[in-house]
Amino acid sequence: MKLFIGRKRELNELKHLSNTQSPKLVVIKGRRRIGKSRLAEESAKGKTFLNFTGLAPTNAITSQDQRDAFARQFSQNFKLPPLTFMDWSDAFNHLSLHIQDVPTTILFDEISWMGSKDPTFVSKLKVWWDLHLQQFPKLTLIFCGSVSTWIEKNIINSTAFFGRISLQIDLGPLSLPECGQFFKAIGFKGSPYEIFEILSITGGIPWYLEQIDPTEMADANIKRLCFSKEGILVGEFDRIFTDLFNGYGKTHKEIIHSLGDGSKTQSELREDIKYPKSGTFGMLLNDLITCGFITKHYQWSLKTGRLNKQSLYRLSDCYLRFYIKFIEPHRDKIEQGSYQDLAISQLPGWESMMGIQVENILLQNRFLLLKSLGVNPADVKNDNPYVQRKTTRHKGCQIDYLIQTNSRNLFLSEFKFKRRSMGTEIIEAVQDKISRFSPPRGFGIAPVLFHLGDVSDRVYEKSYFYKIIDIADLLESSGEKV
What we know:
Elements: H1 8-18, E1 24-30, H2 36-43, E2 48-53, H3 63-78, H4 88-96, E3 104-109, H5 111-115, H6 121-131, E4 139-145, H7 148-156, E5 167-171, H8 176-186, H9 192-202, H10 206-209, H11 218-226, H12 236-245, H13 250-259, H14 266-272, H15 280-290, E6 294-300, E7 307-315, H16 318-327, H17 331-335, H18 350-364, H19 366-373, E8 380-388, E9 397-405, E10 409-417, H20 425-436, E11 444-452, H21 457-462, E12 467-470
Parallel strand pairs: 1-4, 1-5, 2-3, 3-4, 10-11, 11-12
Antiparallel strand pairs: 6-7, 8-9, 9-10
């Protein structure tokens, strides 16, 4: 069994669910490689576990091919001679005959692939659940899939399964403490800086982390995975979009490339990729949000605390940004083996890109940021990256992470990722930002520095920042996401 780290909250939810005296239907969705099926398998320890996985989609794959794959796995699970199912109802009903009255977990992995070619798949699945599985109170049926848009449409938001889903889990990357546990467990000897370099590419995606060789330092791992012709992350981008959008993700890719240059509003995005005014553009953005690749950051009125209509869209998937910035432009040379002796740190824009990536990771772990500041989440009115647009009355201002509390405090957070030591120039930069920031009267402003790298004694001596927090400490935090 592979190393399994973290996911305590999700495992506890599944454990409590299994104590109920009725069949359970669970949906686990999330990005490709995020560990959905591994979580399902881990939750089934001590139970009968039956796993059925759909075939990766291609134009040539038919619904019968999917049923044939199901039949082969059926025979393997129950050690039976080869079977053939000509209809999904026959396949499901046949499975019912082999379920026993013992704690059992059945996993339909990549269910979107399994059912995408048969328009009757979902309705037959629903009938099977209603008429055949209700007699098995110790049964947990889990649906997993990387194509979260299909699951949203056909399972979660479908009238067929309305009121039938016992638990829905949206699985995200491992938290920073979980990543810290992982690197410690595999015996990685690199510094916190090197760990964050690796995380800035893998983003805490478990399968990517499992490719790390603990006997190598960060640069050697990055070169092997991303800049050698055999590197598994060289072609990962293509596999992601083929699996998710079946080759029809051209506009999705354009959105990803546009956001690689920085956060944008919906109108800025649409204009950048020259997409006509249409309601379908919002649907495309929602596809990428559902898939876990981009994040919608609501903006708000500091005075009233109400959310604005305008939001910022951010490319929050570290691997995708790294690919379009560093792998894609050099892919031909990488596949020719021309980047074998590459010095990673000498790549143009490397450190600034790492800064953006670490910012992504910190925003995904904002529960840790609040804890390190001593801010109770219940006291937070709003928190997000914040942009103050330039007007005739106000200057423009962009804040890495702004926390507004009910007690009218504003924690203005600056994220810095540097190899070299930071001096008092960081104070000057934040002072300049605050001079352009125009909050309403009556608010307190507490500047905060989250950093990786040395901070000079002069910065501490000036006592300018409310808190200076070394993000290396977050790898060791005992904080659990709630």
